[in-house]
Design brief:
This protein is α+β, with helices and mostly antiparallel strands and 408 residues long. The chain is 19% helix and 22% strand.
Length: 408
C-alpha cells in the first residue's frame, strides 16, 4: 500500500470510529447473502459492534451445530439505508429447528438458526447475544433479496378462478403468486422435492419480525426468507409450502407442486404428511385482518379438500422427533388446521393469529365451490405449474382423539 493510500485508510477508520462504527464488515457474499462472524469470547455473552455493512433487508443469526439450541436471547439493531437512523433493539425468535427427517436434515452444511427478521433496506448492524451456553460458530446473516441477476420485481396480481377438485370437501384453488413471479432463484435448489404420500393437516405459522411493510414489498420478503432458508440454514428450498401477506396475497412456497404432498421444513417433529402456510408479520403484537384470515382459510380448504378432508376435523400424527413438546413416536391428536405451537414449543403463530384459528377453520369449511373458471393471468400458477396430484385418497381414522393431546 502506498503512503497516500495508507493515510487515507487510517483517516477513514478514525472517522468511522468517531461515529461508533467499525469499517465495513468483512463478509462472505453468496447469492444475496453476506455473513459476518461473531467474535469468540465469553460463552454466555457475545456481541458484534455497530458497523457498516453491505446492503441487506433481512437478518438472522446461525451457528455450526444444527442440533444445538440458542438457549437465551438474540437482539439486533439495524441502520436504515434511507434515513441513516438506527432502529431500537429488536429480538430474533430463537425457536427454529431443522427438519427431523429427509434431505434438509441430512444435507452437508445445515446450520442451526434463529428465525429471520425483515428490516427493510439497511446498511448497518449491531448484535448482542446471551444465554446459558451459546453455540459455536455464531455468524450474522445479512440477506439482500434484490441482489443478483435473478432478483425479480413483481407487481400485485389479480386473482384467478380455478375449478375445484372433485369430492364432497372440494374447494376452488385460491390465486397464488408463482415462484417465478416472486423471483425464486431455482439454480439454488439443488435436489428434487421429496413427497410424503398424503397431507393430513395444515400448520399455520407467522414469519415474526415486523408488520411494518408495504404489500408491494411482499415478494421481496418471500425472496429473503427463501435465501435465508437455503443459503443460511443450508436447506434445499424455502421451508413453507405457502405464504400469505397482510393484504391476503398467497405465494407459492416450496417447489414440487402445490397440489402434491411435498415434504416441508416447518414444524419440527411433524413435517411428514402435513402442509404449512406462514403469514408475513408478527401476530404476537398485531391482530390479523379479514384478508389474512380469508386467504389462510382458502389455502387450507383447497389443500385439505384434495384429500376429502373436513378442515374442522382432527387427525392423529406420530412425532418424528423428541422436540421439547412431544417424544419420538408419541401419537398426538391435532386439529386439521393447527398452529405451529400445537406441535412444537414456540409462540408461533403469535397469540392473535392462534386465537383466530377457530374462525379460520369455519371459513375453510364454508369455502364456496361455485365460481366459474376464468382466463389465466400472468404471474399466477396454471395447472401445469401446480402439478397433477398423486391420487392419494382421503385419510381414514382421522378422529381417534383418545390417542393424544388436542392442540386447542
Amino acid at each position: 500500500m502506498t503512503p497516500r493510500l495508507l493515510r487515507t485508510a487510517v483517516a477513514t477508520a478514525l472517522a468511522l470510529g468517531a461515529l461508533g462504527l467499525t469499517p465495513s464488515a468483512r463478509a462472505t457474499p453468496s447469492d444475496g447473502v453476506h455473513t459476518v462472524r461473531v467474535p469468540d469470547g465469553d460463552p454466555h455473552d457475545r456481541s458484534l459492534a455497530p458497523r457498516t455493512t453491505e446492503p441487506f433487508s433481512l437478518i438472522g443469526v446461525t451457528w455450526d451445530d444444527p442440533d444445538a439450541a440458542l438457549d437465551g436471547t438474540a437482539e439486533v439493531r439495524t441502520r436504515s439505508r434511507e434515513s441513516g437512523a438506527w432502529s431500537a433493539w429488536r429480538p430474533l425468535e430463537t425457536e427454529s429447528r431443522r427438519p427431523e427427517t429427509g434431505p434438509d436434515h441430512d444435507r452437508a452444511g445445515v446450520r442451526g438458526s434463529t428465525q429471520p427478521l425483515w428490516t427493510g433496506p439497511s446498511d448497518g448492524v449491531q448484535v448482542r447475544l446471551s444465554g446459558s451456553r451459546l453455540p459455536e460458530g455464531l455468524r450474522v446473516e445479512l440477506v439482500d433479496p434484490e441482489a443478483g441477476s435473478d432478483a425479480v420485481h413483481t407487481e400485485a396480481v389479480d386473482p384467478d378462478v380455478v375449478p375445484p377438485a372433485a369430492g364432497p370437501q372440494a374447494a376452488e384453488r385460491p390465486a397464488m403468486t408463482s415462484r417465478s413471479a416472486w423471483g425464486a432463484d431455482e439454480s439454488l435448489v439443488k435436489d428434487p422435492p421429496t413427497y410424503t404420500g398424503d397431507t393430513k393437516a395444515m400448520f399455520v405459522h407467522h414469519t415474526a419480525g415486523t408488520n411494518d411493510y408495504s404489500c408491494s414489498e411482499s415478494a421481496s420478503i418471500v425472496r429473503g426468507v427463501f435465501l435465508y432458508h437455503v443459503q443460511s440454514n443450508g436447506w434445499n428450498d424455502i421451508g413453507y409450502h405457502f405464504l400469505v401477506d397482510k393484504c391476503g396475497t398467497v405465494f407459492e412456497g416450496r417447489a414440487g407442486g402445490v397440489d402434491k404432498p411435498v415434504l416441508g421444513a416447518h414444524t419440527y417433529g411433524f413435517n411428514t404428511a402435513t402442509s404449512s402456510v406462514s403469514v408475513l408479520g408478527d401476530y404476537s403484537t398485531a391482530a390479523t385482518n379479514a384478508a389474512v384470515r380469508a386467504s389462510v382459510a382458502k389455502v387450507a380448504a383447497w389443500k385439505l379438500g384434495l384429500y376429502g378432508i373436513d378442515p374442522t376435523g382432527t387427525t392423529v400424527l406420530t412425532s418424528g422427533a423428541d422436540n421439547g413438546k412431544y417424544k419420538l413416536g408419541q401419537k398426538v391428536t391435532f386439529h386439521r388446521v393447527s398452529g405451529h405451537r400445537d406441535g412444537y414449543p414456540t409462540e408461533c403463530p403469535g397469540q392473535h393469529l392462534y386465537d383466530d384459528l377457530p374462525e379460520i377453520r369455519t371459513l375453510a369449511a364454508n369455502a364456496g365451490t361455485t365460481a366459474e373458471p376464468a382466463a389465466q393471468q400472468p404471474g399466477l400458477l396454471d395447472e401445469d405449474e401446480a402439478g397433477t396430484g398423486t391420487g392419494a385418497g382421503p385419510d381414514a381414522g382421522n378422529d381417534a382423539a383418545d390417542e393424544g393431546v388436542l392442540g386447542r
